[in-house]
Amino acid sequence: xxxxxxxxxxxxxxxxxxAIFKRLRGVESVKSGYADSKVANPSYExxxxxxxxxxxAVQITFDPAVISYDKVLDIFWNLHDPTTLNQQGNDVGTQYxxxxxxxxxxxxxxAEAAKVALDESKLYRDPVVTEISPxxxxxxxxxxxxxxxxxxxxxxxxxxIIDPKVRKLLKEYRNDLKAEVR
Length: 182
Hints:
The protein has helices spanning 14-21, 44-48, 69-78, 105-121, 148-151, 156-172; strands at 5-11, 27-35, 55-62, 87-88, 91-92, 98-102, 131-134, 138-140. The protein has 182 residues and is an alpha+beta fold. It has a single domain (5-176), classed as 2-Layer Sandwich (Peptide Methionine Sulfoxide Reductase, Chain A). The strands form two sheets. It has a six-stranded mixed β-sheet with strand order 7-6-1-3-2-8, covered by helices on one side. Strands 4-5 form a two-stranded antiparallel ribbon. β6, α4 and β7 form a beta-alpha-beta unit. α1 packs parallel to α6 (156-172) and α3 (69-78) runs parallel beside α4. It starts with a strand and ends in a 10-residue tail after the last helix. The model has no long low-confidence stretch (mean pLDDT 96). Belongs to the MsrA Met sulfoxide reductase family.
């Protein structure tokens, strides 16, 4: 097995992002939390005030021999709207920003090139506003956020917001899914 790598991504509510990435082959773990915070160990309530500077994010540990960082980013770009500043759907605030927090120069290069290619593709009418910044910190979210989607599938937010993203993943990335998910 190759040495595991880490990706830290923010693209709206971390419940959605965790639900997506935990289903992929090569992903060893996904942890919801708060990235780029100005405050140590912020709480969910503090992050929601917008005063911590933190983004709802996930930290993904993956095996690059099974799933590449390019593929991780492809799925990231495809399963949220990277053109809305500090917002994903009805979730509004700086904590819902689109961001890639790179862990090394190679991740930075790949993320910047992917962002340029996405903008040039004209897939979106508006420009991509995803922030690409060096990783500074990540604080795990409270335990009640773990596996939120899988524990609360009948909850309204899960049915209206997360279900469509999971269905899109199952349809468009079938060959990248863990065997038990297919």
